[in-house]
TrEMBL record:
Bias (Polar residues): 268-277
Domain EAL, residue spans: 16-265
Protein name in the entry: EAL domain-containing protein
Region (Disordered): 255-277
Origin species: Methylomarinum roseum
Length: 277
């Protein structure tokens, strides 16, 4: 047993080193890129903003999702570098598409660093971008480590027009303190809670209560991981503001196509994954 424990440890170590190496090289060679997934108004299906989800292209062409490399990246101390890379990439997209609204996922590393904020503000100013078009998705656990600092940075950036969303709400140790004290515009309910919606009873009541609680604090609710029409219907009946998930549009390499003005916007039939641009 001791031996197998040590073997496990050394495998974990090898894996960390592997991903650290791979990511450093990927950042240098710009092999990291985004998939895009629309976040739409529950009642109309209109795209409100689009989330950028990080992807890594391996030399054999395989596309790797963050679940595979983020834990190692974190352990290797690459969070900050990744945050910077992601923001840079997002700014590039926004300056080529000034009418788009884009959300990116950032870690606690960026939020706890005032140099990062300054660089961001400077870049947005220099490129004459609208901060309103940029939404930062932060997870609860990310904020927890240094709440005061994070609060201050969120407030500063919000006052300049940037927007924030709390991601994966309900997945960790949800703190109601965040709802009250963080100036975020959106709260995204975690997929695990959304999946439970197809059960009757307690689970439904629980999610309904969370939704009204978020509304009490004046934030908009986003339902994540909407995989089928039944869940979409339940969420809409529960007054969720925005929805995101495979039922509405899968993450894709191309920007989701925007519906035209006179198009039927029933989200049940409108498939945002089809790129018609
Ligand atoms: P997240 O921000 O909560 O993003 C939602 C995840 O759920 C994405 O996984 C998305 O592909 C997936 N998803 C969307 N709709 C559905 C659905 O209907 N059903 C199911 N089962 N899944 C759905 P992905 O792209 O693998 O990303 C995983 C996580 O990695 C993200 O969760 C986010 O926390 C993190 N991440 C993604 N991009 C970045 C990034 O650029 N920087 C950092 N630091 N983290 C990132
Ligand atoms: Mg997110
Ligand atoms: Mg999430
Ligand atoms: Mg997540």
């Amino acid at each position: 047993r001791v031996f197998s424990y040590e073997l496990q440890q050394s495998q974990a170590l090898t894996e960390n080193v592997y991903w650290k190496d791979t990511l450093l090289r990927a950042m240098e060679n710009e092999q990291l890129f985004f998939y895009f997934q629309p976040i739409v108004a529950a009642k109309t299906g209109q795209i409100v903003y689009t989330e950028a989800l990080l992807r890594l292209k391996m030399s054999d062409g395989r596309i790797v999702t963050p679940g595979e490399f983020l834990p190692s990246a974190e352990r290797a101390g690459l969070n900050y570098a990744l945050d910077c890379y992601v923001v840079k990439a997002a700014l590039k997209i926004l300056s080529a598409n000034p009418d788009k609204k884009l959300s990116i996922n950032i870690s606690t590393a960026a939020l706890n660093d005032s140099g990062w904020t300054e660089a961001l503000i400077e870049a947005v100013h220099q490129q004459r971008l609208s901060p309103e078009h940029m939404i930062f998705e932060i997870t609860e656990t990310a904020v927890i480590s240094d709440m005061e600092k994070a609060k201050q940075i969120v407030e500063e950036l919000t006052s300049l027009g940037f927007r924030f969303a709390v991601d994966d709400f309900g997945a960790g140790f949800s703190s109601l303190y965040y709802l009250k004290h963080l100036s975020v515009e959106y709260v995204k309910i975690d997929q695990s809670l959304i999946k439970d919606l197809i059960n009757d009873g307690e689970d439904k009541d629980f999610v309904r209560a969370i939704i009204s609680m978020i509304h009490v604090y004046g934030k908009k609710v986003v339902g994540e991981g909407v995989e089928n029409a039944a869940i979409l219907e339940i969420l809409t009946s529960m007054d969720v503001d925005l929805v995101q998930g495979f039922q509405i549009g899968r993450p894709a390499e191309h920007w989701p196509a925007a519906p035209t003005d006179n198009e039927d916007l029933n989200p049940k039939t409108f498939n945002h994954s089809i790129d018609r641009l």
